[in-house]
Design brief:
Elements (H helix, E strand, L loop, with lengths): L2 H25 L4 H7 L2 H9 L1 H18 L7 H16 L19 H26 L12 H23 L2 H12 L6 H11 L3 H29 L4 H16 L10 H11 L5 H41 L1
Helix pairs in contact: 1-13, 3-10, 4-5, 4-6, 4-10, 5-13, 6-7, 6-9, 6-10, 6-11, 8-9, 10-11, 10-13, 11-12, 12-13
């Protein structure tokens, strides 16, 4: 067996083993009897049905950025494989930083330029979290400000200011160019690699920022809609409070210490936020766990079968060039 096949089978085996271990570990922390006995299956079906749209938006956003880092046409198949691998790599790393590993599946792009755009993409994913998350806070019950109209008013004003500032930064990419080029001309002025890295931000225009922000916002809405549907499937709550709770939980999760694939943090923040609304802990934890299964575990399992194609495609490309 040649070296490339050994690498392929090793990666498949390690990835499959990691997926299996994490699933088994987390199943022990979730009351499966509660899931089976109390779930409204129709809401779960609707949440699962949104997965293709979730993946498509990730594909469109990543393809838009990948094209900007390449002078040649990038095959759609390569972008799709990259998206699935990004989900799997993010799943296996703290803070989902491993998602940036998806750029290695794009063979036609400048990797350093694509890396800068990939970092910018992750930053843009946080923008809708800040906007919707802060706007949800004044509507949460049973917090320290619940009995004070003035506190709620001040928090609402604060949320509006944060949202406006976030939107302004999102649609004006000049800030990223300024930061990158400041580093290029000062701290890292001797680094040729960092100069190439900055080229990705250099090509980012206001129109591009608007497209990326729009796709990130749509993706956030789809993701949180799935979460809200799952919450409603396990708990007795209305649509408004389901979304308010989900937005606040996602905001809180974003600023908490990192864990492998956000495991434990996602469930913990959901339990805390929806606990303020009187929802049972089992309901919110079950919803968060099923969201993980639908959006992360299923695509990650698919990526196990895509890893060999990535290596084979790369090997064939190198052979043709040689």
């Amino acid at each position: 067996m040649d070296r490339s096949r050994i690498i392929i089978y090793s990666v498949k085996l390690l990835t499959a083993a990691a997926l299996a271990w994490i699933v088994i570990h987390n199943i022990e922390t979730v009351e499966l009897k509660y899931i089976v006995r109390n779930a409204d299956v129709s809401f779960i079906i609707f949440a699962a049905a949104l997965l293709p749209l979730n993946l498509f938006l990730q594909y469109r956003k990543w393809k838009y950025l990948a094209v900007k880092a390449s002078e040649e046409r990038i095959p759609d198949k390569e972008v799709w494989i990259s998206v699935f691998l990004g989900i799997a790599f993010g799943f296996l790393t703290p803070g989902r930083i491993g998602e940036l590993g998806k750029l290695f599946a794009i063979s036609q792009a400048d990797r350093l330029k694509l890396l800068s755009l990939g970092i910018i993409e992750k930053i843009y994913d946080v923008f809708p979290v800040l906007i919707f998350g802060t706007l949800s806070l004044p509507f949460l019950p049973h917090l320290f400000f619940s009995g004070s109209v003035m506190m709620r008013y001040n928090l609402m004003m604060f949320a509006i200011v944060i949202s406006v500032l976030t939107y302004f930064i999102a649609v004006h990419p000049g800030l990223f160019r300024t930061i990158f080029f400041y580093l290029k001309n000062t701290v890292l002025k001797k680094s040729a690699g960092f100069k190439r890295f900055c080229e990705g931000a250099k090509d980012l225009r206001r129109r591009d920022a608007g497209v990326i922000f729009s796709l990130s916002t749509l993706l956030f809405i789809v993701y949180t809609s799935q979460f809200a549907l799952l919450v409603m499937s396990f708990g007795n709550t209305d649509v408004f409070h389901a979304f308010i709770g989900v937005w606040a939980a996602v905001l809180l999760k974003t600023f908490l210490p990192l864990s492998l694939g956000d495991i434990g943090v996602r469930e913990g923040t959901a339990a805390f936020i929806f606990g303020l609304m009187g929802l049972k802990i089992e309901a919110s934890v079950s919803a968060a766990f099923l969201l993980f299964v639908i959006n992360i575990l299923v695509p990650s399992a698919v990526s196990v079968f895509l890893v060999p194609f990535t290596f084979i495609s790369k090997r064939n490309r190198l052979s043709s060039e040689g």
